[in-house]
Amino acid sequence: MADEGQGAGSPRREELLEAAYAYVLRHGLADLSLRPLAKEIGSSPRVLLYLFGSKDGLVRALLGRARDAELALLADLPAGDAAGLLRALWEWLAAPAHRDLLRLWVEGYGRALTEPDGPWAGFAEATVRDWLAVLGRVLPEPAATEALAVLRGALLDLLATGEARRTGAAVAAHVARLS
Amino acid sequence: MADEGQGAGSPRREELLEAAYAYVLRHGLADLSLRPLAKEIGSSPRVLLYLFGSKDGLVRALLGRARDAELALLADLPAGDAAGLLRALWEWLAAPAHRDLLRLWVEGYGRALTEPDGPWAGFAEATVRDWLAVLGRVLPEPAATEALAVLRGALLDLLATGEARRTGAAVAAHVARLS
DNA sequence: CCTGCACTGAAACACTCGTTTCAGTCGAGG
DNA sequence: CCTCGACTGAAACGAGTGTTTCAGTGCAGG
Questions:
Q1: How many whole angstroms separate alpha carbon A146 and alpha carbon B105?
Q2: Within chain B, how many helices (H) and strands (E) appear?
Q3: Are A113 and B159 contacting, i.e. CB atoms less than 8 angstroms apart?
Q4: Which residue is nearest to nucleotide D20 (CA to C1')?
Q5: B171 with A146: Cβ contact below 8 A
Q6: How far apart are CA B81 and CA B41, in angstroms?
Q7: Distance between CA atoms of residues B48 and B35, nearest Å
Q8: A149 contacts B157? CB cut-off 8 A
Q9: Between the CA of A70 and the C1' of D20, what is the distance in angstroms?
Q10: How many C-beta atoms surround the C-beta of residue A21 within 10 A?
Q11: Are B142 and A170 in contact (CB under 8 A)?
Q12: CB B141 within 8 A of CB A169
């Protein structure tokens, strides 16, 4: 990496990354600015640049942090049949507590599509692969891709309309046909 | 509207809007800036502000223009059964010629979720409603919401990975179960 | 003690941003 | 001719941007 800054694995860096991550969950990544961010997490632009190398480096670290949160979810899923897995995934996606993370996720996804260079590069494709790997263990193609599409599409619907009942019913209808 | 500028329906405005729309399809909306945009479409920031009132007014007009393109698609769809409709929709979504529009669409969707105020407001929900209205004519709930989810989810997958075969097969599998 | 190293504060640099001010140009209507 | 309104160019304004420079602090190991 050419942009990691000086304190690659330092504890102070982890600490600030965590605080910045919490900040970004609330404010989004789109018009992230160093001065307001630094002020709210009790740091300074100078220090963020020192620890992350550049703003792009910071954004990359934040995106990586978001992906870690996603991978953590996918890691400790109840190992069972496909229907149970999908139900667990949707329960997680629909939980209000995860809404901020998922909004951030959609934002990063959108940016990654329009700007294939820059810090977002590869973010969209990476999450598709991550999820497909999990679903591929319990479903053959094309059912895995279809299940992923249902979850992602229903999530977009839910985030935009807030209608948990309708979107939940659609996912349930899909799951019901699996068994 | 408080932000439409002076030349609400002028021909010059339509002309520049069209040029700006083409520009935005190529460059995305995220870091749109008046000076580079004006330069490339043969105008000036001064004029854009005059015709659209503010940058937000311009962005709103561009988002409206994108939605018009979407509504035009939904309007002249072959009236038939659900399976035929879904196949036609996916064919449109997967067409390389529409990729720029769809990327712009994802970007606007993401921004609308993270910034409920501002010019993006309502964009995400509006497109969900538009599509659901069309699908609701040939499919009952929860099948309509599910079909929308499959199309949207498969589209996200396709835009990120470029794998037309796999995503197309997933949509086809879903459609096949309808009849 | 002293040297090095991780870290930080203050201030400046060199932009770019949306927007405004002022001064026009041009063609149509009275 | 004259005026009015639509439209435009040049330049400036003030704020905010990522980043750099310089000058430190405080604490570890030799």
A1: 21
A2: 9, 0
A3: yes
A4: A46
A5: yes
A6: 43
A7: 10
A8: yes
A9: 36
A10: 20
A11: yes
A12: yes
User: How are the residues of chain A apportioned to helix, strand and coil, as percentages rounded to the nearest 5?
Assistant: 75, 0, 25
The Cα B54–Cα A161 span in angstroms is: 28
> How far apart (Å, rounded) are the C-alpha atoms in residues A62 and A17?
7
Going by C-alpha positions, the residue among A124, A128, A127 that lies closest to residue A144 is A128
Spatial contact of A63 and A120, defined as CB atoms under 8 Å apart? yes
Token pair listed for B157: 């997958």
pLDDT of residue A179: 76
User: Would you call B100 exposed, middle or buried from its count of C-beta atoms within 10 A (0-12, 13-18, 19+)?
Assistant: middle
Confirm whether any atom of chain C, the nucleic acid strand, is less than 7 Å from CB of B46: yes
Q: Could you give the CA distance from residue B103 to residue B111 in angstroms, rounded to a whole number?
A: 12
pLDDT tens digits, one per residue of B10-27: 778 999 999 999 999 999
Please tell me if residue A56 touches chain B, with a CB cutoff of 8 Å.
no
Residue closest to A164 by CA, chosen among B143, B115, B113, B145:
B145
Cis geometry, peptide bond prior to residue B116 (ω within 30 degrees of 0)? no
List, run by run, the mean pLDDT of 10-residue segments along chain A (179 residues): 64 92 95 96 95 96 95 89 96 96 93 90 95 96 98 98 98 94
Contact B113, A159 (CB under 8 A): yes
Joined tokens for residue B122: 């309502």
Q: Is A178 helix (H, G, I), strand (E, B) or coil?
A: coil
User: Where is A102: in which H helix or E strand?
Assistant: helix A99-114
Q: For residue range A54-67, list pLDDT tens digits in order.
A: 999 999 999 999 99
pLDDT exceeds 50 at position B125: yes
**Nearest CA among A154, A10, A114 for reference residue B102:** A114
User: Of B66, B72, B50, nearest to B18 (Cα)?
Assistant: B66
* CB-count burial class (<10 Å; 0-12, 13-18, 19+) for B140: exposed
Count CB-CB contacts under 10 A for residue B91: 11
- In Å, what is the CA distance from A69 to each residue of A87, A108, A161? 19, 14, 24
How wide is the angle at C-alpha A169 spanned by C-alphas A135 and A151, nearest 5°? 25
